[in-house]
Amino acid sequence: MYGPPPGAASVAQNHVQQGLSSMPVQNVGALGHVSNIPISQNHVHPGMTITPIPVQTSGAAQPPGIGAALVSQNHIQSGMPPISSQSSAGSIGPVPVAKYLIQPGMPASSMQNSGQSHPAVSASVPVIQNNIQSAMPPTSQQKSGQFQPSTAGPATQNHIQSGIVPNPGSQYPQVLPPTAQNHNHQGMPPVSVQNAAPNNSGLPSASQNHIRSEIGNSPSLQNPGSQNTPGQPHMQNHVQSVMPPMPTASAAAPGAQIPKRYPAYPQQPPISGPVGTSQTYPSFPQPHQQQFQQPGMQMQPQLGQDGGFYGGPGMSVGQGSQYPRQVSTTPQVGMAQPNYPQYGQQPAQYGHGPAPPAYTQPSAQQGQKRLDPDQMPSAIGVMQEDQQTRGGIFRTDQKGLLPPLVTTKFQIEDFGNASPRFVRSTMYSVPAQLDMLKQTAIPFALVINPFESPAKDEQAVPCVDLGPMGPVRCIRCKAYMSPLMQFIDGGRRFQCLLCKAITEVPPEYFQHLDHTGQRVDKWERPELWRGTYEYIATAEYCRNNVLPKEPAFVFVIDVSYNNVKSGLINLLCSQMKNLIESLPSHTPVGFITYNSKVHFYNIDPALGQPQMVIVPDVADMFMPLLKGFLVPRAEAIDAVESLMEQIPALFGDTKETEAVLGPAVVAGMEALKASNRVGKLLVFHSSLPTSDIAPGKLKNREADRKLLGTDKEKTVLVPQSTYYNTLGQDCVGAGVSVDLYLFNNSYIDVATIGQVARLTGGSVNKYTYFQADIDGPRVIGDIILHLSRHIGFDSVMRVRTSTGVRPTDFYGHYYMANTTDVELAAIDSQKGLAVEIKHDASITDEDGVYIQVALLYTTIYGQRRLRIHNLALNTCMQMADLYRNCELDTIINFLAKQSISRSVETTPQDLKEGIVKRCAQMLATYRKHCANPSMPGQLILPECLKLLPLYVNCVLRSDAVAGTSEITPDDRSWLMYTVMTMGVPSTVHYFYPQLVPIAGPSGSVDDPVPVRCSRDKLSDDSAFILENGIYIFMWIGAAVYPDWIQDIFGVANLGQINVEAITELPDHVNSDQSLRLRAFIRSLRSERQRHMRLTIVRQRDKMELVMNRFLVEDRGSDGQPSYVDFLCHMHKEIRSLLNQ
Ligand SMILES: [Zn+2]
């Protein structure tokens, strides 16, 4: 089809590059004839000459016709010096490679400056650059040891800003100045000395991987039961001053608290009553045998509730059908046969009573009552209240202090516990008794975002450099020096709160203690008083005991027909300079393109112009370039510009539709390995890999789309081949993370190819039906956001816990070769992992639960570091303490990830029933053991969990957890990957989107405040933004103020807005309203770290149907219950549990 040009074949057959001549010959047969040589017409483009390479045959060269080592270097012909062969050439496989000089139409003299290094110009991302740089230790300040203990606050600030720990170990004074104030800030509870039983769970496996083994060396079990002085109990439990006291089953203490009490809605306004911290919703439907004679879910008819603001009957219960009738302007697709699982089966694990009636049963009876959704617990209300009561400074000096909600704007002052931005727990009082935890069914889990960006004006994470000594660690569990270590014996030894072992203080780390038992240098050493800090790691923490080089970024671009046609190639090439300027100037960059072959580019500035090297044997990929592939960004800029001009010309008229994804990823990995660097591959891919000649061939499973939502859905959600998993593991082994950018127009099997991103800590980004003119800004915006993040490379994470609990299950994008070390080829500020913590048995130490998260990683500047997060939680003997100290947003994040993980193992119905039952159990246990005695028909929700029914319903109807055939399998898989890496702030808005009014009857809304996420809030004369972190919809009512249309869109009326073409608000309109709205959208995108596409939805357009899916308080078009329906159902589940 694309025959070789004259002369090419002979070149390809003959030459053997000098440096490769001594290599062993392999793969001879398959490549021994001309037709395999990749010199195709389509590589030759007008204005470009591809120069065949002169043959340089060394003694070991294979004769023509065998084609054993067909690599040539044509730069000799072009007057450039030959690439020096090095001993590393021996690692390159003898595969035929034809190498061509790309000679663009421009004269060589115009390229003369290509060898010059250009200063790093990164005006486009100054903030990010600054952030990254601020994380680097300013070494010039390493001696700034004048910290004044008595001025801990301001001095702390300075100290942190200097970013480095002062005082090298040799300078400890002999004098012991008292640090009287300091112990107040101590984040450490006292040590109660016990025989420290060996913590089996904390024992790291003897891994062969050096990096892994360094983060968790085999413990030496010394001093397990050593005698030592307990410290003074400095910790006060301040939780109770924050959370009101809560009645318990044994000691109900009403009166201390005036909670909201929800009346028999909707007749009466809310009244207050002394019912503990819970909320009571008294008039929920009664069981039929109760005195209220309201069978099942029946409600009394409520008059006078129709119409009004909500413009319709809204929610009602009991219409003689499976679901409450809902009147809506929206077509109710599939309403007659809602697909929702039959709730109310016999609880499998929580009870022994009779099975409650199914969800379908009780509603088909008499009477109904209008339920006013505004009487239900409101997410918006909870967020606003938390902002008012918990906003401002959050100081982490107390064990087990419940943090503000993620939606609340607050500032962290780190005094011993990690910021909740880094580590959030589902609970801050952990039941000591395993039985109690099981009874409540509340998961104990952490959501860890180790690199989450600090809020504005928050302190940067300090960095500690202990020189050759390296971090000081517990002798047994290998935990790092932290506020969780208690110094004893005059400062000569310290006891670890995690495992109780006692460790000798290294002489160079010794310091005296003051009269409170604190080291006198405590406030000069972040590791002694901060929750989060970093260590500079020594060589023993590095691959092969060698300090790393800077990680590299390789752009791997599919140049087949689809990407050319869509305009992606032109877009990427025209923007490449901007993109790589998001990177530090020393960061090496490299470029690979691929279709049915893989092309490497030599961008060595010394060459004058880039060269292409083609590897045709995609089944046996290797790195053909000895040098010049990876070049520091600033030095490469001219060559990159030149290359980016040539690539569109090279492939602009391609007819190749094949793109060999697997070999392209292997190529990138091999390129990084060859240079002894770790790094990231950004792979821009367009089609299902179907090539017969390349490994990783996949078949099209799209016909199985209809299986989504059925018991067989897992057949399209699990990988169809293990190739991409194996590839991912290989990449992790090489420290290579893969980000996929998918530009598919048809099925691409995200479930299978996405595995390579999942296992390598990468991301899957999907731009289906990409058109450069419409989607270009979004793609470029996303890539810049990704490149600009704080990224840790070649990472290993270890979560250590105190005795009695241990991390068991991990959720996120990572790879684990053993049960303790989470390998993350890369992790960035937008990626979180959820970790379930389980009790080994009951916790015997009632002192607290202590957690240390250690992340060993390489910075983008090539520095090996350890980032340490410490967290101290309370333990509790009273169930009420647990319910008072839950973190619902974290629970939801965890449950969603666990559900997604299980969705490839179980059926959708079992999954949903499991979640519903678990939540009913959480609430029923509270009702049974913690709430005041009250009438059985009341729904009583613990304050911390009062949104649980709302949020669980949102999870159960989300496309990530329960996407049905309304979306494609690729979309479902993509959302599953996306949610699996979300931190808590992201899942809050993904599951409960923000609905924000932007225009009302009198025009623009100046200070937009979110409202409940229901179409009831939409009205003809208003406009709204609906945003979930993935999409932004702008809904415009049919009767919206015409001037507003003019002010925003620059057209006279709604009909003139070209909704299909607009993905950004027009920037030629410069009214105040437009500027404000555009700024608002910008801030949303920046907050979510995603350049969310903007979709304009006019009232009654068909896009309204799509948008309605995200109005999560309403009934779904696929039969998903509304919030009110679900709350009623949940109440019934609770009642049936209580009656057992
Ligand atoms: Zn320890």
UniProtKB/TrEMBL annotation:
**Coiled coil feature spans:** none
Where does the Sec23/Sec24 beta-sandwich domain lie?
Answer: 792-875
Domain called Sec23/Sec24 trunk: residue spans: 548-779
Matching entries from Gene3D superfamilies are given as: beta-sandwich domain of Sec23/24, Sec23/Sec24 helical domain, Severin, von Willebrand factor, type A domain, Zn-finger domain of Sec23/24
Which ranges carry the Zinc finger Sec23/Sec24-type domain?
471-509
Residue ranges, annotated region (Disordered)? 135-280, 305-375
Q: Which residues form the Gelsolin-like domain?
A: 1006-1081
At the top level, the lineage of the source is Eukaryota
Q: Which family does it belong to?
A: Belongs to the SEC23/SEC24 family. SEC24 subfamily.
Question: What is this protein called in UniProt?
Answer: Protein transport protein Sec24C
The organism named in the record is Orchesella dallaii
Lineage of source species: Eukaryota, Metazoa, Ecdysozoa, Arthropoda, Hexapoda
